[in-house]
Design a protein that fits this description.
The chain is α/β, with parallel strands linked by helices. 39% of the residues lie in helices and 16% in strands. Helix 6 links the parallel strand 5 and strand 6. The longest helix is centred in the C-terminal third of the chain and has 19 residues. The radius of gyration is 21 Å and the shape is globular. The chain binds pyridoxal-5'-phosphate.
Length: 374
């Protein structure tokens, strides 16, 4: 038996939707891409959406559209997947890490403020585990210092903050559709925005910097004509993937409801167990419950982790603070130390949580955790 920490939930409807596209005229950049974009944009309450072939590509084109380049600093959290800061490096910019809040494990607005310089251009808050960051404070800071906000919503499609959906608030929000994420397209991602100018730039960067839009071109020589206006990439997503994404969107609310139920079961079962710190939940937010993090005594983390793996439980550690990776250490981050991030990392364990986790599997996980920690 092996119980993964995260897993896709794909059923016959999803399979049929993909098969239908395989029998159609378009495999890539056909009608399903636009339909999927519109579906997600409507769901999160954004005007525009640009689907791409990964969450990482979404973050990259968002940084490009934001005009991040050499000499620009972008503040983000180290308790995230490396893509949240790599996207800044791709553009020649400098990621600056702020510490996390010790309760929510999300980026701490105070720590953001301490790191703002003349060169700061943007903030990339990550809604870690699916729980929204303190967006009121982050918006306020961004406004005061004229910074762009690019949300990394890879964990948080379907989450909301004080009644506002993640994806409806900032300059841009990026989502990932990797199989462990709230919905999947296999590989895939999307940027949503309410800003038409950013939208047009995102479209360019998704596809080589090339356009056929007469209004954007410097001249028009005929119907065959197109121009490359900037240096873009091939980050296009296929119609095959978007058909899967559309079918998955039908189930998103159900997936999140099941994730919430699993989190509540864990909360109930672990309440009062000594030596175990449970996730802190903010009022006024709906978490997507992408991850369920427990925190144990750092001196016991290794042993508890190894024993859970031996029991066939696919526990993980999300995340190693990004600046601790050898690549970052070699490139100027060797003196970086963020207290709350390091302390959290030292005791963090992610337990299995995903829509197809069964009650029996969860009972088994609970039993083993209590046996080892209690
Ligand atoms: C998964 C993830 C990404 C990257 O998404 P991919 O689709 O795997 O490229 C970025 N940021 C966070 C926080 C993630 O969890």
């Amino acid at each position: 038996m092996y119980i993964p920490y995260g897993r896709q939930a794909v059923d016959e409807d999803d399979i049929q939707a993909v098969v239908d596209v395989l029998r159609s005229d378009y495999l890539t950049t056909g009608p399903k891409v636009n339909e999927f974009e519109k579906r997600v944009a409507d769901y999160v309450g954004a005007k525009y959406a640009v689907a791409v072939n990964s969450g990482t590509a979404a973050l990259h084109i968002a940084c490009l559209a934001a005009g991040i380049g050499q000499g620009d600093e972008v503040i983000t959290t180290p308790i995230t997947f490396a893509a949240s800061s790599n996207c800044v490096l791709y553009c020649g910019g400098t990621p600056v890490f702020a510490d996390i809040d010790e309760n929510t494990y999300n980026i701490d607005p105070e720590s953001i403020e301490e790191r703002i310089t003349d060169r700061t251009k943007a903030i990339i808050p990550v809604h870690y585990t699916g729980q929204p960051c303190d967006m009121d404070r982050i918006e306020q800071i961004a406004k005061e210092h004229k910074l762009l906000v690019i949300e990394d919503g890879a964990h948080a499609l379907g989450a909301s903050y004080k009644g506002r959906m993640i994806g409806s608030m900032s300059d841009m929000t990026c989502f990932s559709f990797h199989p462990v994420k709230p919905i999947t397209t296999g590989e895939g991602g999307m940027v949503v925005t309410n800003d038409e100018a950013l939208y047009k730039r995102l479209l360019l960067f998704r596809s080589h910097g090339i356009t056929r839009d007469v209004e954007q071109m410097t001249e028009n020589q005929g119907d065959w004509y197109y121009q490359q206006l900037d240096l873009g990439y091939n980050y296009r997503i296929t119609d095959i993937s978007c058909a899967l994404g559309l079918s998955q969107m039908d189930k998103l609310d159900r997936f999140i409801a099941r994730r919430c139920e699993i989190a509540e079961n864990y909360n109930k079962a672990f309440g009062g167990v000594a030596g175990l710190k449970l996730p802190f939940q903010l009022d006024d937010t709906r978490s997507g419950w992408h991850l369920y993090m427990i925190w144990v005594e750092p001196s016991r983390r290794r042993e508890i982790f190894d024993r859970l793996r031996q029991y066939g439980i696919g526990v993980n550690v999300h995340y190693i603070p990004v600046y601790k990776h050898p690549y970052y250490q070699r490139n100027g981050y060797d003196s970086c130390y963020l207290k709350h991030s390091e302390e959290f990392y030292a005791g963090a364990i992610s337990l299995p949580i995903h829509p197809s986790l069964t009650d029996d599997e969860q009972r088994y996980v609970i039993e083993k955790v209590i046996e080892l920690v209690g």
